[in-house]
Design goal:
Elements lengths: L1 E6 L3 H12 L4 E7 L2 H11 L3 E4 L8 H11 L4 E6 L4 H10 L3 E4 L4 H12 L4 E2 L1 H9 L8 H11 L4 H8 L3 H15 L4 H11 L5
Parallel strand pairs: 1-2, 1-3, 3-4, 4-5, 5-6
């Protein structure tokens, strides 16, 4: 039996995933969590063979949960199951240690087969998520400071306010914003925020 942990903040989603996998005959649900912190605790308690994690969860998100779980067991087999296909999210999850990245509209039999493949040591990335990664160049990756500027802009701050918060000059903020527009291929700051949200660089 493949022992599985499921972490998702939506009860119906957790129940649906559990029912789908339990029906396979070779899988057993040993832990259920509603947030990233619970996921880490449930992993420590049950030591599942495969953990299925959502990315958008309260208290600690999916990426934090991946890091926390892998701190307990470096070879933990983790499958990200999410609604987001943005390339920055995919790359972030895989770098953190996830072995698979699937979208929540995946058919039940494909989800089960992915769990089996991850259990045996394989890696799996959903086709649409892989297309998002392949579509973008490493050269358009935003720096940590550019992400800071973009997050503050997304919250409605002016260039002057962003500069005050980050302790940099307004012209420096404008320079960062110009670079962001070029990297994202955006026409203005609103478009840049929209693209960054879609790709998973920032979240609101």
């Amino acid at each position: 039996m493949i022992r599985i942990l499921i972490a998702d903040d939506h009860p119906m989603m957790r129940e649906g995933i559990a029912a789908t996998l339990q029906a396979q005959g070779d899988m057993e649900i040993v832990g259920i969590a509603a947030n990233g912190e619970e996921a880490i605790a449930q992993f420590a308690r049950h030591r599942p063979d495969v953990s299925l994690l959502d990315l958008q969860m309260p208290v600690k998100d999916g990426l934090e949960a991946i890091v926390g779980i892998r701190a307990l067991h470096a070879d933990a087999r983790i499958v990200v199951l999410t609604t987001f296909s943005g390339d920055a999210r995919v790359i972030g999850a895989l770098k953190a240690g996830a072995k698979a990245y699937l979208l929540k509209d995946v058919p039940g039999d494909e989800l089960a087969e992915t769990v089996r493949r991850v259990y045996t040591g394989s890696s799996v990335v959903a086709r649409i998520a892989q297309q998002e990664v392949d579509h973008h160049s490493p050269a358009d990756k935003l720096s940590a400071r550019e992400l800071d500027v973009l997050r503050l802009a997304a919250n409605g701050n002016s260039n002057r306010a962003i500069g005050e918060i980050l302790s940099i000059s307004e012209p420096t903020v404008k320079t960062h914003m110009s670079t962001i527009l070029v990297k994202l291929g955006a026409s203005d700051r609103t478009h840049a925020v929209t693209l960054a949200l879609k790709r998973g660089y920032i979240s609101l």
